[in-house]
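note to self: dont lose this again. the chain is below, predicted strucutre after it. 591 aa total, dont forget to put it in the shared folder this time
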Amino acid sequence: MERSSDDIIVSLLVSVLLDKLSSQALKDFGSVWCVQSALRELSDVLGNIQQLLKFAEQAQTNNLLVKRCLRNLRDVAYQAQDIMDEFIYEALKLVEIEKKLEDHYLRESANWKSHGVNDEIDSRPKSGSLVDESFTFGRKKEQDEIKKLLLSYPESQKQVSVIAIVGLGAVGKTTLAQLVYNDPDVEKHFESRAWACVSTDFNVVRLTSAILESLIGRNPKLSNQEPLQRKLREELRGKRFLIVLDDVWTEKDNDWKDLTVAFMAAGEGSRIIVTTRSRRVSSIMHPMYTHDLQILTDEECWSIMERGISMDYDSIAPNLEKVGRNIAKKCKGLPLAASTLAGLLSSSSDLNHWQQVLNSSLWDLLEESNLPTALSLSYYFLPTYLKQCFVYCSLFPKDYKFNKQHLIQIAEGFIRSNTTRMEEKGSQYFDDLLHRSFFQHCHRDYTFVMHDLVHDLAKAVSGEVYGRFEFGESCHSSSKETRYLSICCTKHMFDLEKNQGHDKRLSTLITLKGYGCYLHNDNTTESFEGLRYLRVLDLCHSCICMLPNDKGNLKYLHYINLSYVSDIKRLPESLCDLHNLQSLILRDSGI
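---
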């Protein structure tokens, strides 16, 4: 069945090929074998193809024939990359031999260039984490109403009372909860506060651990339910606490009972705030009050857009404001949509650009999707290089906490830079997506999250090139076209891969921290057999005990992350022969 929602990008793959053609290894090869002119001709042809592909990528939205052709071309481009990398690898080996001979016979150590790897330290970005009240509009009344309930003591009230915030996705439930949670009076009133994101996976052990970590500021390092609940009960005993459970989906009464058993030791006046999209979900918690959060007015949406476009309210020209207000009506009252559109419009003060957004035919084409049209439109107006970086994030599950520096390091092939350092360019890409509201600051942390609907958008346009396995099952794309794969549990992952006919052309393999990820030690080497095109291997927090010693299968690797892998004690000697390896991260590993 032809997929119509995935967005196929090939022009950036051609950019990678052009970069490889200009590499020093191929320049040396061309000079020695007198084929410089042929390489230049190939580069010119690829340059022309790249320009044509950009037109085709714009046309694929409403032309399935073009999309089908792009899908075929993408496969060819990936194969060309593999062939080019293999040739460059062999060329680098010739360079290595030449330098060894030079060192042996001429002893010119000053001309020696090492092919060693960098032992990099994974550092967290320093950025704000709390909600920015200057970008919230139309919620003051709701904030005061919920705050009043938090601070009051009605008669015949339970020791722990629940307040539910119910509303559509992207309507601002989490933002309202954050506003209340960070209110100075609320913060002063409660002896303990905790925030936990629940999402679709209502796992009592994980949630209890998350609540404890939020309360005490560190990971309790307990993996079983009973000791976790005892620890939480003791931490809450006799205290007036506030706990926010954000984005609850479960409709099972037993889930709620299992979680709240530790809350019974609470002090008088304790409160739990629950945000959910469903009144049925909130009803199982028997809330003292349910607030149905309504959509914003068009004027409030414009206020959000206005602030996102310019901090100076009077700086937006009247002709732009008129167009902007018409665009605000298309937000359908959703603040997230207003924020993303603000990011789109802030990139240019040209009236033609704003009118192009307002009158785009994509509004009608995207209306059939289950996602807010404004979100999808903001994606389609992204520069191509940002599109691919955004879609890369579909490898990670909902509510995943993104570390900016880590994401930059593993997003191989997507960050193009000729004049600035790769880290600086990657940081610029990330900040641009953050400015356009595709990322949000995580609460009380130096990490970032994607809103559920933004994540849904990334997944919808990602196609079959990106895949994800959770607990032994594919929950995302999984086919022979998959090049980038993340795994939460690998018990049967490679068996599934064989059964589904994967041709082992994975370029990226990532294990995910805190999502039950593990690798069977006795099958580790066998599991990597055949994955000869891997460029990125991120095994952070996994239980792997050794890396395979077959350098031929992993010769394209340029990034290996073994952080927090305590079971691995040594590295294979073949690691020294990986000429493309740029980063080897061993933070808190067993080595």
